[in-house]
Amino acid sequence: MSVQELEKIFLSKIEQEIKIEPKDWMPDAYRKTLVRQISQHAHSEIVGMLPEGNWISRAPSLKRKAILLAKVQDEAGHGLYLYSAAETLGTTREQTINDLHSGKAKYSSIFNYPTLTWGDIGAIGWLVDGAAILNQVMLCRTSYGPYARAMVRICKEESFHQRQGFDILLALSKGTAEQRAMCQDSINRWWWPSLMMFGPHDSESTHSEQSTQWKIKRMSNDELRQKFVDMIAEQVKVLNMTLPDPHLKWNEQAKHYDFGEINWTEFWNVVKGNGPCNKQRLDARRKAWDEGAWVREAASVYAEKRKARQEKQIA
Amino acid sequence: MSVQELEKIFLSKIEQEIKIEPKDWMPDAYRKTLVRQISQHAHSEIVGMLPEGNWISRAPSLKRKAILLAKVQDEAGHGLYLYSAAETLGTTREQTINDLHSGKAKYSSIFNYPTLTWGDIGAIGWLVDGAAILNQVMLCRTSYGPYARAMVRICKEESFHQRQGFDILLALSKGTAEQRAMCQDSINRWWWPSLMMFGPHDSESTHSEQSTQWKIKRMSNDELRQKFVDMIAEQVKVLNMTLPDPHLKWNEQAKHYDFGEINWTEFWNVVKGNGPCNKQRLDARRKAWDEGAWVREAASVYAEKRKARQEKQIA
Amino acid sequence: MTNEITYNYTLHLADNALILAQRNSEWCGHGPVLEQDIAITNISLDLIGQARSLYQYAAELINGSGSPASEGKQAASEDTLAYLRDSREYKNCLLAEQPNGDWAQTILRQFFFSTYQFLLYQRLQQSPDATLAAIAEKSLKEVTYHVRWSSEWVIRLGDGTEESHDRLLNALDELWMFTGELFMPAGYELEAAKAGIGVDVSTLKTEWEQRVNEIFAEATIPTSGREGGWMQSGGKEGVHTEQLGFILAELQSMQRAYPGSEW
Amino acid sequence: MTNEITYNYTLHLADNALILAQRNSEWCGHGPVLEQDIAITNISLDLIGQARSLYQYAAELINGSGSPASEGKQAASEDTLAYLRDSREYKNCLLAEQPNGDWAQTILRQFFFSTYQFLLYQRLQQSPDATLAAIAEKSLKEVTYHVRWSSEWVIRLGDGTEESHDRLLNALDELWMFTGELFMPAGYELEAAKAGIGVDVSTLKTEWEQRVNEIFAEATIPTSGREGGWMQSGGKEGVHTEQLGFILAELQSMQRAYPGSEW
Question: Which SUPFAM superfamilies match (chains C, D) (predicted)?
């Protein structure tokens, strides 16, 4: 079959909402876009373990400690699913990880902000996971099968995480004056970065159009962002807290919340590597990887030895 | 002059209380004894920095933090005086330090006990420095000049330390129930090890007799220990605390306090290397030394470069 | 009286679990392989779960005791017990508080501890104290996995590369002296054993050594030459290494800074 | 109002000194050479002394202010200010809280900070606030020594061995991004400068760069190529790196665990 014919089949599958599977023919650009996006997503899970991991040793109750630990562990699990999904497209986990460590691959910029108080753990769960879920729910219907299926598994756990984050803030909001201040302070610091998670405005977004056509993405950045604002602006009332945006206001006509302009200079600056923790996060990941080299080597040498012994026994 | 004649002069100096100086002839065994004792003493100052250093970051007030930091710094200074005194006998600081790190040279066993509470910082000042001072006061009159002079400088600072240690415990003794318990607990744990600091009973002490003859030592282990018990048994009353010895009792006839038998099994065990912190202390010293190697090398290479440049300028 | 023995005994079991969980959790996000990051975190979670059940039981005991210790204070809970006792009141064994070191040291610490805990819980299942017996039974499934996982890693490292073998030997050098304490009963352990509630840990030693030696043999680690070596102790009676104070400063920082708050 | 500005400004100066002192003091007993162990400890001591004077002054200000913040609370003191504020209330610059790293990193951090502090205190001597002026004057003698000592070490490491040169470059890579904040005035600094009490730190930048470049030139470290690099900030306004929480957990552990006690 000619490339034209293959492409036609591919596009008709997309059209008919038939998932593309690893062995199917797919355009190179589709494959590349997916590899980029899935590995970026995987890296976000892995790097995302660090800001929250920062509070495991200091969680203020045993119950919260256990919940947090389980949550960070879930993120590692999500990383695994996604590295596997990326592998179905012909990249190895090692390659993917090397791209992270060399700075070639990106991860969600939100994780370049520091967790300064326990309230931040709540805010990450509520706002950051909340924003992530909207994206992930959409991706459950993405056109590439293994990615969509990974997303289904991830979404289930993620919405659980969001509720846990909200629950942390709820406890703070009902607590002492110091706790309520901690709650508001965390919301203040995480609100804008979480809005940035949806990426640039649709008008500025480089990859969006093609991705939408291929049904990798099924909603635009601005659509998702609006959905998020509408959701959070309601939930924040339950906390008796406010969002740090003087322009936030219900628009009766549009049936949406209006909100202020994002500081895009900050956004691009953090993407470029100048966030408060970019260096620290990458250094931590590289250190874990480098210091684990002898462990991985030992495991693989042992596995070979064992295999050789078993083969000898059989022979 | 024959060795016999030299030895006669040496002994007559000792007899007449004339200090032996570095360039004077001295018996090999005298030199060896001094090198062993002075470097052991130096090492005790250096290793002794560790248990107290352990509480610098956690000192409960800024004033106490400053005092503790200054104290540990003084110990480093004492180490310096003593390494210098040892150098006058023909050993280098590096050799001496290597002997510590290889386990060949000893240091005071007391520093192999852990500092578990802030009270321990008080107890070390009061009991450990208190015991050390009695020894050091005696050594101010030791027969070897440089050692005696180092001791004079050290003694001044050391008695200051002891008062500071007592002052920590005094504050605890006047404090809350928790603080009083902390005070008594520290005394309980440090009392017996501080008695052990004076070494084995005179009847068991291997080096004592010769050292006394040469006026390196001027009081026996048991004499010094008795002096210490008499002193502390009085001071503890000011704290409204007790010493953990049911046999402690004023003996009106002897005009001394009687006290119980020391657990010599524990003493020898710790000397042999089995104290709670022997490994930890040596590991910490070795680590500091090994990780500092590149710093010392850089400093010496730079000094040479600089010297070479200066010589070139002069030429 | 029996109550107080059980209280102390239960605290000891809880402290062991919590402190080792706290140590293991330092790996979370920093493990050598993602799968193992997950595995060690899982063990942490199991241990925190055990600690919580045990602290809850200890809190019940002390709250119900009407003892002087419980008067005029806020009611005990899993959190007051974990977050408001100082290092001299903690009863965990020294092994649990030792630093993570490298992966070999973490693995070996886990292997030593889990093998011990397995034997202990196996016996504790038969305790006439129904709560302790139930916790032991429930935990035993988890611990069985911890033993298997850590054994496999001991073998893998011991029989892996020269470097991993050396690192395991080094870990052994760091940790062996803390294994003896596991089998030297503290006062409350002896009394709990006498009262029939607890296990006489000294009786577990032989089987522990056998199991350790079996795995060591497979890991090509010498199984002899360590007899008679000095063993550190004191942790169970509250005399710890200098490590614990720092662990607790971090662990307890929030509860200490914001006393009496709900989280 | 002026009072509150001075209070915040003084706390900022105090926090800088305390946090750097706390970091430096981690070396005590672990230095690469005994003489330098003493020297770095000495700098720590000087900085704690400065911090104490400044906190005492801040306490005076707040106790005398009758402000709502002071009502119903225990009177402020050097210790309440150091031990009972949390990390979001700490106003030190990010540079001060960075980890010690190796000796090169500690040296470079000190060199950057002391050079800054020297220029700052020189100007602060002229403050109409007599207390701040007196503290600056007294501290300046100490800081002059800190600058000399750290400069000598920068030169020694830069122009020493290849390894020490590389380590210094690595330290530069770690720390440079925290130097910009020194010269970006926080709100209270601007107001203190406007009120004539404090120093407008932005005016110190050029001379600081000159002095740094002079020493770098002697140390054979490139003096250019770092222009326009991104600078981290936030510490002075209480938005710190993740380091500070851990520093404070340890620093404050005793006061938090035993509230209201005298030591």
Answer: Ferritin-like
* Residue D252 to residue C252, Cβ atoms within 8 A: no
> With an 8 Å Cβ cutoff, are C86 and D259 in contact?
no
Give the closest of D86, D246, D257 to C250, CB-based: D246
Same domain flag for B164 and B100: yes
Does residue B291 sit in the same domain as residue B251? no
The mean pLDDT value for D85-106 works out to 98
Neighbouring C-beta atoms of residue A153, cutoff 10 Å? 13
Run means of pLDDT, 10 residues per run, chain C, 263 residues: 88 98 98 97 98 98 72 83 97 98 98 98 97 98 98 98 98 97 98 96 98 98 88 97 98 97 96
| Res. B36 pLDDT band, cuts 50 70 90 | very high
Q: How confident is the model at residue B209 (pLDDT cuts 50, 70, 90)?
A: confident
What is the model's pLDDT at position C66?
Answer: 64
Nearest CA in chain C to D251: C249
- C-alpha pair distances (Å), B18 with each of B86, B145, B214, C73: 19, 9, 12, 67
CATH number for the domain that contains residue A154: 1.20.1260.10
Closest CA of chain C from A222, distance in Å: 32
Instruction: For residues A60 and A78, state if they share a domain.
Output: yes
Sequence-distant (≥ 6) Cβ neighbours of residue B252 within 8 angstroms? none
Interface of D with A (CB under 8 A): 86-88, 177, 230, 232, 234, 239-242, 245, 249
**Do residues A309 and A223 both lie within one domain?**
no
Distance from CA of A205 to the nearest CA of C (A): 31
Instruction: Calculate the average pLDDT of chain D.
Output: 95
Find out whether A195 and A262 touch, Cβ atoms under 8 Å.
yes
**Model-level pTM?**
0.96
Q: Do chains A and B touch (3 or more CB pairs under 8 A)?
A: no
B159 and B176 in a common domain? yes
Q: Are C21 and C209 in contact (CB under 8 A)?
A: no
Domain range for residue A284?
Answer: 276-314
Which residue intervals of chain A are DSSP H helices? Answer: 3-15, 28-47, 49-53, 62-87, 93-102, 118-123, 129-139, 145-173, 177-196, 208-213, 221-238, 264-269, 278-291, 293-314
- Tens of pLDDT, residue by residue over C176-224, are 999 999 999 999 999 999 999 999 999 999 999 999 999 999 999 998 8
Domains and CATH numbers, chain C: 2-257 (1.20.1260.10)
Q: Which residue of A has its CA nearest to C18?
A: A62
B124 and B243 belong to one structural domain: yes
Q: Are residues A149 and A85 in the same domain?
A: yes
Number of domain units in chain A:
2
